[in-house]
Amino acid sequence: MGSAKKSSAARTARIEEMRRAEKARERRNRILVITASVAVVAGLAVGGVVLVQSQSDGGGSSAGDAKNAGKFVTGKDGVRAWEGDLGRNHVTKAVDYPVTPPVGGDHNPAWMNCNGDVYADEINNTNAVHSLEHGAVWVTYNGDAGKADVDALAAKVKKTPYTFMSPVDGQKEPLLLTAWGHQRTVTGADDPAVDTFLQKFVQGEQTPEPGAACTNGLSK
């Protein structure tokens, strides 16, 4: 019992620390936006040609670029780990991911807000994958999931920074948890695997860009 209380207290402290860090990043971002806007106006004439060249070289990459060879390997803890390369290019077209929901790969330059955000409708996979790159956990469900479980998971997500939630009709399992390169199914909101997964993968070691923002992205 004592160990469980210590684990809960540590997780609470970790969440509070991430909230403070997120607020600090928001303040820095506001300053950077003001500074960058001036620089962008000054550099548009010079950078226009470079931007066009960059897009022609791959900025508009299409679906095929993310179809990297790979497969899931399931660990003893029930977590499926993706074995194979996951692209991290910014693309502006649709991406044909090998699994639904995707666990990584090329993605849109804009991320979905993932600071405990709950989306009632499906969201764009390419934006969601960018959030995974920032160390967020994506909670998803299909039409077979029970309303009570969906509501309970939504309440948990709203309390947890670096998480977000949305329906994904194309997934096979009713309830799924996804982080960059990792995924597992859970039986319900009270499944102990939910808290275990969140504790391990929210800003976990798998994160390609630890500390990157989960705010100031897309909200729908």
Automatic annotation (TrEMBL):
User: Is Metal-binding given among the entry's keywords?
Assistant: no
InterPro entries in the record: DUF3105
List keywords of the entry alphabetically: Membrane, Transmembrane, Transmembrane helix
* Low complexity bias (residue ranges): 1-10
Q: Where is the composition biased (Basic and acidic residues)?
A: 13-22
- Residue span of region Disordered: 1-22
Question: Membrane spanning segments where?
Answer: 31-52
Superkingdom to which the source organism belongs: Bacteria
Record's keyword annotation contains Protein transport: no
Question: What's the protein called, per UniProt?
Answer: Membrane protein
